Give the backbone structure.
Amino acid sequence: MKKHLLLFVSLCFVFKMNAQEELPKDFAPGEKEKMEEYLNSIRNAKHKSLIVTPPPYTKLRNAAEWEEIQTLNITWTGSYTNIHRAIIKAAQLETIVTIICSDSNNVKSNLTTNLVPLTNLKFLQIPYNSIWARDYSGNSVYGAYVDSLILVDWIYNRPRPLDDVTPTAIAAAFGLPIYETKTPPWDLVHTGGNYMSDGFGTAFSSTLTVAENTTKTVAQIDTIMKKFMGINRYIKMPTLPYDGIHHIDMHMKLLDEETLLWGEYPAGIADGPQIEANLQYIQSTYNSVYGTPYKVIRIPMPKDKNNKWPNQSGGWYCTYTNGVFVNKTYIFPTYYQQYDTTAIRILKASLPGYKLVPIDVDEAGSTLISQSGAIHCITHAVHTNDPLLISHQQIKNSCDFDPSYSVKAKIMHRTGINTAKVYWTIDTLLGFNQVPMTLTNALTDEYTGTIPQQALGKTIYYYIEASATSGKTMQRPITAPLGRNTFKIVLCPTSSVKENNGFEFKAAYPNPASAITCIPLSSNKTQAIKVSLYSMMGQLVDVIYDGEINQGDKNVFLFADKYAKGVYFLEAKTNTTTKTQKLIIK
């Protein structure tokens, strides 16, 4: 015990002294060697002041990032202050900004000198190790679905004890209980940049989570996430070859319950093939909370200013997915105009009504992206104590012969719902009509409203507004009425497409392969197909898929890490056609 205490104290001293030298997002020199002993010190410590058992609730719900927050927190280290100032200036218009710092007067002076108001700011003058607030902050979880806010804190995956205890200070500052996954059997090493939740029990990470918890099985990790955070479905994707930190926020982001913002490289470049294979695996294996496939919005992954990709020596991992929601504002990283204009156009179309705040993270003298991090990486949030939850799957285009259009939403508040309405129009300049929503399923808290039939070719703009018994009112989208959902009335053909025997065996990717590998198939009719893996000598190694595929596209998947390295052949065989292609497993 004395040995562990001495290690903890020495780490606190060393990293406090080094706080002036910004610690990287990855391990600093010497940190990886200290990690195992540090973890033992955490697991064996007597956490007398902490709650280290699962929360005593039966309806845990981890809030999604786009939901209402009560504070955005950052750690002011004295580095990248121009980026921090820009974040504060945008966020303080939406919520309280909590600033962890060593000297609040110094921060206030810096802000005042640079014309940033001191309004809506909260200062926590506590010791810290690094700037990477996303990775070590606590997570907002509702104990009763829309009530009883708590914070849940994992063991930070770096031996930085001062960072690791900052969630306790934030919880105390906002009067919240905090639950810690720090004591066996509930100990879990994790990091915020490698985690995203849809707000309804599904979460995403890379398999870094498994690699960093070698004493746990995947089932045990899933159990901890379920008991502490209400995660019932934990999707883990293979890590990427050139992303050294393996954090998913560097190439993807959930924009809502069913929409993925997905980073995209040019064909065959850097992590592009594995990112695409991971996406196709998700699309083929999982549906959104609404039971339908995830919508995907692609956004380019740019080169750095030295014209390099991450797989090239010295190349930085530039990304536009590393943004943060702050109620009705979205703050995101930018780099240079060639790529920025495209990214801004995509985000503007994807996030209607949001105030978009671009911040250069590659500015001369302040290249945050050189440390493998951007805006999402240095921010975190505590969600509201009083959520009014509105979850709605946007209406897709409707047929010209549909007599009306149903708008359904899950609406919940701890005091109950007083009224719910749909606001709609076909001309935003003329204002919105409103129709009531009524409770149509008390078991699922589903409310339904009906928009009357409109003419062929019309576009309908709409949003939902609900008021709780307490008087609180919210809209969905949160940015309404400036931001609203849309759908069109389209002509729906009744003729069917004639089938033929066409069959396409597209190139598998990534190739060379080392993890999940996507094998795309396309057929012009429903037919039986068998996909097999053969050695160079023509010996059958494995049957990858044997069954029917329907008309259209289908992806099947090969897990390359199951096989020995070498050259193989993939064969796709139907009753009338056999096609092959080469696959290299590295």
